[in-house]
Design goal:
By secondary structure, the chain is α/β, with parallel strands linked by helices. About 30% of the residues lie in helices and about 20% in strands. The protein has 18 helices and 25 strands. It starts with a strand and ends with a strand. The mean pLDDT is about 95. It binds beta-D-galactopyranose.
């Protein structure tokens, strides 16, 4: 399959007279895909049951006639005013019990039965009309589930649905009381009808209650998406996707992705650096115009797994955005670098958001490939450069990486529910290890927590995965790979209780976490030989060989055979040592990379990326600022 480019277009924002020219310019630029429709409900159905298809028929025809393939979005992220008037209680409710309002987007609660049926109706209408349209070559459901903090809703609809969900899980309320430990603080229930949502309590609610609500909230997203997918599929053979986001963990993307052919995500490297990466102030300055060197890569690898191998970037930042604390312009060359980086991680397509900057409404200051006056913006020329380079580039390819890293959304919720100290978060832990492998030049596959087949991996890591089913433990123990666990791996049972024997209770590893402490950021514990425990320190007891120790001689990581349990969250220097130790044992080649340089192997090429604002020298030669080197690999 060829690597392709595309863009996001809103014909309803522009006069009809310029559509042909827009379409011709997109095709001339070398774009293949154009995503449309995802916010256009008020123009498709201006009043209940009154459809205006003419403009959308026309737009699809114009784009298709220019040789473009259309990705058609369902418009359910933006219910028009009349839908909200019809269901005045369809809004999500925040943790303080306040309903959210109309006037932007994503203003619905996943549990609202009326809105679900309204969504199914509009999706049915659109899928029936365009399901066999030759120009509609892919679909997108809704837009960015989870954006603007919209997964968790404390609405009446959610409360009723949650009770049903609990009923079907636990069968009878005595079993729920027992599983959750409701005897503590006399929290026992006599009936499922008494169970509320875990907000507005006097102090913290029972973690088992909160974790159940988090799982339920995720399931609501999965069910909502599947309802759309089932309808589209009945009318169309084109692949279906959803555009996920960066560092959104409120729903299980693997479960949503299981129902669709392709995963896509929206990559805004400069926006993320300011607002989601967690970079130091020094790195925020250094990478201000380039973005974090690992954050996009992490999500490329994550969504490749969510898409079961098939994934795109549906929205690629083309210039300054409007929504981060500061919104600098990318360094010249970065739009090209980001595009190639996605291809290096196996993307089938990269689509730029958006075609033309809108002179009205919320995103006036968000760049497009074109300025509002239709003159090409700087990002346009970089897209053009990539389009030319793609002409003789190899096809999409991915080779299994030597390292597999499990990412588990359920664990992310567990850490949220019980962080045991400020700033502890599962994503940050896994990302810290991911970055350490990347600093060593190692390519990584992110794996679903349901993976049981680890053939071909030399190292598999499952940090912080608080619930680990026995068959996963067994599969890892039998995998033949170096297995890295901890901190907090297998630390809870399914109902958020500490198991006895104490965690991790691992086959063939005589280690128990006897106690744990979290540390203030200004009191790291030095590790003998270099690096430090940053903030999370488990005291380990047991027989095996200790691989790292604190200066004071307490074990930091213990190992038996090929299984290593590391009970601490290390700083970069310590995680670098851990990675060095594991890669040496596993026989994986590492590279000595300058800061900000990253490498990624596909089946056919090795890519070198310079994320620095200055030139560097590396093993592949001179790399200019924002430079990319592609080397053919002979395996
Ligand atoms: C995404 C969203 C787009 C647009 C973009 C701006 O989150 O899907 O519709 O708002 O951000 O950066």
């Amino acid at each position: 399959m060829k690597r392709t480019l595309g863009t996001c277009y809103y014909p309803e924002h522009w006069p009809r007279q310029i559509w042909e020219e827009d379409a011709a310019r997109m095709a001339a630029l070398g774009l293949t895909w154009v995503r449309i429709g995802e916010f256009a409900w008020s123009r498709i159905e201006p009043a209940e049951g009154q459809f205006d298809w003419a403009w959308l028929d026309d737009a699809i025809e114009v784009l298709g006639a220019a040789g473009l393939k259309v990705v058609l979005g369902t418009p359910t992220a933006t219910p028009p005013r009349w839908v909200c008037d019809k269901y005045s209680d369809m809004f999500a409710v925040d943790v303080d019990g306040k309903p959210r309002g109309f006037g932007s987007r994503r203003h619905y609660c996943f549990s609202h039965a009326g809105y679900l049926s309204e969504s199914k109706r509009i999706v049915e209408e659109i899928a029936r009309r365009y399901g066999r349209n030759p120009h509609v070559a892919a679909w997108q459901t809704d837009n960015e589930y989870g954006c603007h903090d919209t997964v968790i809703s404390y609405s009446d609809a959610a409360r009723l649905a949650f009770r049903d969900w609990l009923h079907s899980r636990y069968g009878d309320v005595a079993a729920l009381n027992e599983a959750w430990g409701n005897v503590f603080w006399s929290m026992e229930y006599d009936d499922f009808e008494q169970i509320g949502l875990p907000n507005l309590t006097v102090t913290e609610p029972n973690p088992a209650h909160v974790q159940a609500f988090r799982r339920f909230s995720s399931d609501q997203v999965v069910a909502y998406n599947k309802a759309q997918v089932d309808i589209i599929r009945a009318h169309s053979d084109a692949p279906i996707s959803h555009n996920y986001m960066g560092r959104i963990t409120e729903f299980d993307h693997f479960a949503v992705g299981a129902d669709m052919e392709i995963a896509t995500w929206d990559s805004y490297p400069l926006g993320f650096l300011e607002d989601r990466v967690g970079a130091t102030p020094e790195d925020q300055r250094h990478f201000a115009r380039q973005g974090d060197p690992d954050f996009q890569a992490f999500h490329h690898d994550l969504y490749r797994a969510v898409g079961k191998g098939r994934w795109w970037v549906m929205e690629q930042q083309p210039g300054p955005v409007n929504w981060a604390p500061y919104n600098p312009a990318p360094l010249p060359g970065m739009v090209r670098l980001w595009t190639w980086e996605a291809f290096a991680h196996g993307a089938e397509a990269v689509c730029y958001f958006r075609w033309r900057q809108a002179p009205f409404a919320q995103e006036q200051l968000h760049a497009g490939l074109l300025r509002p006056d239709s003159i090409a913006a700087p990002g346009y020329f970089e897209a053009e450069e990539v389009a030319e380079e793609l002409a003789d580039a190899p096809d999409v390819s991915h080779a299994q990486a030597p390292v597999g890293l499990i990412f588990d959304y359920d664990a992310a919720w567990s850490w949220d529910v019980q962080p045991q100290g400020e700033g502890f978060d599962y994503f940050a832990l896994v990302f810290d290890l991911y970055r350490a492998f990347r600093r060593a030049g190692v390519s990584i596959d992110i794996l679903s927590p349901h993976e049981r087949q680890f053939d071909g991996y030399k190292i598999v890591a499952a940090l912080g995965m608080m619930v680990m089913p026995d068959d996963l433990k067994r599969a890892l123990a039998d995998s033949g790979a170096e297995v890295l666990l901890g901190p907090r791996s297998a630390a809870r049972d399914q109902d958020f209780n500490i198991p006895v024997p104490l965690p991790p209770a691992w086959p063939e590893l005589d280690v128990a976490v006897s106690r744990l402490e979290t540390l203030r950021p200004d009191m790291p514990i030095p590790v003998a030989g270099g690096g430090a425990i940053k903030n999370w320190f488990e005291h380990l007891e047991g027989g095996p060989e200790s691989v790292f120790e604190t200066d004071a001689g307490m074990p930091v990581a213990l190992r038996s055979g090929k299984t290593t349990y590391c009970g601490s969250w290390g700083d970069d220097a310590f995680f670098d040592r851990l990675v060095k130790d594991l890669t040496q044992r596993a026989g994986i080649d590492v590279l000595n990379l300058p800061k900000g340089v990253r490498v990624r192997d596909t089946g056919t090429e090795r890519f070198w990326f310079n994320h620095n604002p200055h030139d560097v020298k590396c093993d592949a030669g001179d790399l200019p600022a924002a430079g990319v080197i592609r080397e053919a690999l002979t395996r």
